Batch of 2 targets.
Target 1
Amino acid sequence: MTDQIRDRIRAIIAEQAMLEPDQITENSTPQDLGIDSLGLVESIFAIEEEFDISIPFNANEPERSEFDISNMGTIMAAVERLVAQKAA
Amino acid sequence: MNSRKPGAKAAAAQAGVEGPNGVRRVVITGAGTINALGHDVPTTMEAFREGRCGISQLDFRDVDRLSIQIGAQIHDWRAEDYFNRQQILLYDKFTQFALLAAKQAVAQSGLDFQGAIGLRSGVVLGTAGGGLNTWDENYRTVYEEGKNRVHPFVVPKLMNNAAASHVSMEFGLRGPAFTVATACASSNHAMGLAFQMVRSGGAQVMLTGGSEAMLCFGGVKAWEGLRVMSKDACRPFSANRNGMVQGEGAGVFVFEDYEHACTRGADILAEVVGFAMSSDAQDIVMPSAQGAERAITAALHDAGLNPEDVGYINAHGTGTAANDKTECAAVAHAFGHHADRLMISSTKAMHGHIIGGTGAVELLACIMALRDGVIAPTIGYQEADPECGLDVVPNEAREARVDAVLSNAFAFGGLNAVIALRRV
């Protein structure tokens, strides 16, 4: 289940970054992948659509959002939590 | 103009008819507004002086489905107080706001456009969304309610030039009339063009400014998508700012040839002395300090002002992380040492971001600074941000005599427009 979620996120990010999914590691930051602020907002939207969840993210204060975008690993963990909350 | 002898030109400049560039001088002889702070100029200026906040819980259909629920909405707006049934059927809210503001401005100016002067007068207004409420309501009718028929006036009601056209009809302005849409800089671009037209002699009087009425379900829903809106407050330049808050309303001014205004003994509110625009040519949403700086510097140059002549800047100051620090960097660069001596405030924390109408409502703060010697504050200011290290006139209005001011507008799309005014 968890791997599946991570793979789906990887595919979304890969499409946004125009890379292959295996190039997206959990340590990659949005910056590493060449994803700018608009690309990030677009990726978050695509993730919301994919999992039918609502992600609390304000582009003005990314560091204060409950949704940690430091790297792909933190994004994946946060999405897993939101998916679990939705199922609960 | 070019055929004039230098002597005649110098004499005209000396008489005060023409500015230093040998072109006509342009003055503001009327002002009108409606926004969340008030239905007219005196009430709005009183709110500026008091540092009143017009932002509150939004109230319209389906607001419960929005994640952003605050805005500077005109809650007590009753179109039937100002317009008859037939007019309401034909006027979207953005047109209603523009007409109301224009009537106030023309009444203050004392102008009557009957006869030849109407042929040499026009109107140029800014709006970003035009009749967005009309789009929203009628999409709902056909998509959500499944109806196959809409009211016959949908198109004339929603078109972006509807407000400018109705203003031209209301007063018989038969010269240049059009609408400018440059997102958040629409009003400044509109007023700048109006200024240039009067200055060049292309028109004698121009009604100008802008209006916006985007506070409806579809309008706010679209903005939510960008994730730049605040859920709680607009705090320009404050370190803990977390986004913009939308407003609605209009501002309309009478820009008039100085000689014409003097001849008829008009009360002059301020002189428009310069205007410049620039394009970042860089990013569709992220602002550029260089683009903003170029517009500021060019506006000073156009006005024949030195940086140290400027006492106050009405900032674009949206309260987003990106705008405020970029704008402060641009001002610091353009003004050098003088940046630490001038005052710069954003009134958006009071009237919200009125998008295509915002520059027009903000010009009122510039007029208040020049005429009344009162600088409108940046309210909601809580924490100093080293990246916004200018005197932002935090939270309380300040008395100060200023001789020249600027008004900044920097739009999505990287389009910048800066206007310069001077005390008369």
Target 2
Amino acid sequence: MSKLLTTRRSVLRTGAAAGAGLAMPTIFTASSVAAFTNDPTGSSVTLGFNVPQSGPYADEGADELRAYELAVEHLNGGGDGGMMNTFSSKVLDGTGILGKKVEYVTGDTQTKSDAARASARSMIEKDGAVMITGGSSSGVAIAVQGLCQEAGVIFMAGLTHSNDTTGKDKKANGFRHFFNGYMSAAALAPVLAARYGTDRTAYHLTADYTWGWTQEESIAAATEALGWNTVEKVRTPLASTDFSSYIAPVLNSGADVLVLNHYGGNMVNSLTNAVQFGLREKVVNGKNFEIVVPLYSRLMARGAGANVKGIFGSTNWHWSLTDEGSQAFVRSFGTKYGFPPSQAAHTVYCQTLLYADAVQRAGSFNPCAVAEALEGYDFDGLGNGPTHYRAGDHQCFKDVLVVKGKENPENEFDLLEIVEITPRAQVEYAVDHPMFAGGDLGSCNGGA
Amino acid sequence: MLGLNQRDTKFLLIVIALTLFTPILLQPFPADSGLAQFNAGYPDLMQRFAIFGIFAIGFNILFGLTGYLSFGHAAFLGVGSYSTVWMFKLLNYNVLPGLVLAIIVSGLFALLIGYVSLRRSGIYFSILTLAFAQMSFNLAYSVLTPITNGETGLQVYNDDPQILMGENGITTTHFFGLKMNASHIMDVGPWQFTFNFGYYFCAVIAILAFYLSLRIFRSPFGMMLRAVKSNQQRMNYTGLSSRPYTLAAFVISGMYAGLAGGLLASMDPLAGAERMQWTASGEVVLMTILGGAGTMMGPILGAGFIKYFENIFSKINDQVLHGWFAFLPDGLENALVWLLHPFVGKGWHLTLGILFMLVVVFLPGGLVELGQRIRNMFRKKPKADNDGSHKPQQTPHVAE
Amino acid sequence: MDVILLQILNGLDKGSAYALIALGLTLIFGTLGVVNFAHGALFMIGAFCSVTLQRILSWSFETIDPDKTDFLGNPATVKTPYVVEWFGESTGLAIIDWSVPLAILFSIPIMIAFGFIMERGLIKHFYKRPHADQILVTFGLAIVLQEVIKAFYGANPIPTPAPSAFTGSFDFGLLLGFAENTIIYPYWRMVYFAFSLVVIGGVFSFLQFTTFGMVVRAGMADRETVGLLGIDIDKRFTFMFGLAAAVAGIAGVMYAPINSPNYHMGMDFLVLSFVVVVVGGMGSLPGAVLAGFMLGILESFASMNIIKSFIPGIDQIIIYLVAILILLTRPRGLMGRKGVMEE
């Protein structure tokens, strides 16, 4: 274990001679010892992988951990190098980061913002992690991002889809590769309009917490802009397991599309319930009734089984993409673990490479230098086409996949088929877009 | 001393000494050794030990003395956290106003809930408190989002008023300028000890809280509460109304929980709604019973035990396991890792569950009983503990 | 009118799950006096009996199909279930399709055995211990059980569809003279409701009309006297524990198609089922059933848009609100005996 230097700003270090507990203290102001929190001084650097290992998202967390391990292996020169070979930046050479071997610590977020912050703090304070990454829900991502800002380490967000992560809760030390609710809506709405017509009436069921609200706001705005009506927006309690009483009134409302702004277990249950009610066989207003799930997770969609067939949604990445980067990643992940990676695995793998690459280019682990290297950075070869890390809000801009539940899956992983790859230009928005307004990036904090 | 008899004074001094040397006691392994994984002497966890210690001490005043099992105490913890963070948002990062407000608000909240819930006893009381707490949690997570910031948790933003925060005000929680995250790191040979101001701040408050609860336990008021537990009916027949006493105990323990919540937010300025969930209430029940309900030290031990598991065991992954057993031949190493794998890292809940069951089955008096048994084993002569008198009494079978 | 009918239907369906869980819970409490926090876990294990049977029935052998490729571009393996091989395509697939109803038969012996082991191995030692200890140990057991399930089946929900004969929904509205599509209800949920009525009726008639049941009821009323009559009441109570476990188990089996089972579904139901039991009255079987259906219906009404627009967030708290109101006005619950658990 390397030297542990803890919390920011006022860290005072005392060197005491071995055995002499009360030796002459040599007190330095922090800045003269280290320029930033957890400056790796040894031959290795520690990254903190903070993922849900218990609770409903544990399987997603496990997949993220697999991808992290793979990324660390590749960074240290092991394996087949995965996407490092297809990445447009070539500064990573398989000798770790800046010549330091990459090590990692793991923690359990429990999908609770409290536990996630405790786990992240222990990584920073105890294990000397210089970067924290992970998460499988927006509340946790935002909470940990705030912590990293205060502690002066970089946070590379994992799966977080809420507009707020790079909107009203954006932080200078936080970076998001994953897409968001606005992008989902902007990509999905035109496809829906093309398939189902512009004369549709939508009924929204929304998970009653911040992610659900931003998702609902985004998709309602995007579909209404194309001529749809929104008849009702109903908030469902997070703890719901049975959505029957929310779904039963849908047919009576005059709506002919049901939008499920749910994720994870909520999504599996609400979709299963909706299909049980036979909504998809009904004809309303002379049109076939349709169901839409704006954010798909293949891993969770498996829980809904055959119910996903034919249902539209969006996703950040899918293993069936045929570009070089995606294929390299699927090959190296699939060979190691025996099944294809999920979108969560992909985004955290990318984030790890992007961080390593930024450190390498900046020539320093200093969060401010790393942030500068990431800001406004253009890259390619990580599976989503040409991608841009915007300086104004630390959000990645890239193509978005519109997908549909596959009618005839060939194997248990073959659940979604890509309907359209929406070009990046179509999902871009201004930094001060109303749905993202109110936040303040602040300035980067290197700790110490 | 301080209104305590000699024995309690000694007890208190031991507790003070243990608390002050925690950063050393919890860091028994050299920083470079493989066992450093088990070190717990870093600020966040030490703070949590102290804070959840306060929470459990407070809970014990209610449960240990009166026997009323509240399943909604986390609500007060959450309310305390929210009050403190709101003070940060409105005034500045000084923790004092926040902590004071946390105690007041949680006290009022406890008064309200206690007034209603204490009309019933037994499991009905438990369910009532549980219902109130779950309502608070569900509302905090959804419709009360303007006040609580819902899923994300309440935090301080750059554009918050913070009216007392001058131009160059401190941007981290502090106590009149002493920053909570200020740490002093001491290297002694291969060992490394971290002395963190935030921890000592919590520790001093925890000692005060402990002292106060010791006084309550030994006071006539405490005696009255014990009477409620042993036979409320008889107490009523003697013409005493038990309600004011139980309500006072409920409010005091609610204020302890609020204080703990406020301290949590002071160490890390974020208040998440999950703090109020029933599982969080269940956790403090587990802490108290695991450590030994009704004893002075038990709840603190229980709190430390659970928090240690949550934070240390969950971080042991296969890589770490392989690191430990690297000296063994490959086959044996893999076998051991395979064997231990389900119990560490993502399996920490499983280990905790098994340990709960073992403790409850074999040590009805909790960890304190374990300590007593070990002590008696060495002394060979059984010695009645000063806390033995208020261990949970056996309840008769309901069908008897 | 149609909206109200629809929500009553919904409530009955929700309520049947609550009632079944609460029935077992209160059976254990009424006979053995044990507060069983692992009861939700028993429900969960029941649901996973469905999953397990489905897996067993679709046990497959693999053949390599050179025409197809898997996600890595290697030749794909094709799985053929043994039942298809043995019984032919149509019979084999039908057996797999019907795995959930078949799982009832599969789960009853498992759950009874499980209940026996649990009672004899663990609960037995806790009769004389405080309720707090019982809560703690059964809560610990619940954690262990769900973590074991998680270790074997993962954390994600596992799809367990109902037989395809029951897909789709029935139009009640047409039957009652409303317009088309106003009151529709899925077939499987109606099956679940009917099933719960059968189980509840079965348990009641078992207690009411058999000698065994009579002795058990006598034991619930006055355990000591029954013991003095020379009846080994403990043995019967142990059996009742097994029965309660089986009721929770089959409730879980049949629930699997409604919501895909996951390892923490037991905890989701636990708090709720306790509220149901207390509202119904501790130890009262009819009370538990009544409270289950009542809370189910109220919950459904609270989720109506009109009511939500009137009182925001009411659907989040309705159950607890009702529990508080009932406990304050009628402390022993709807049908409970006075004085139970009030010490």
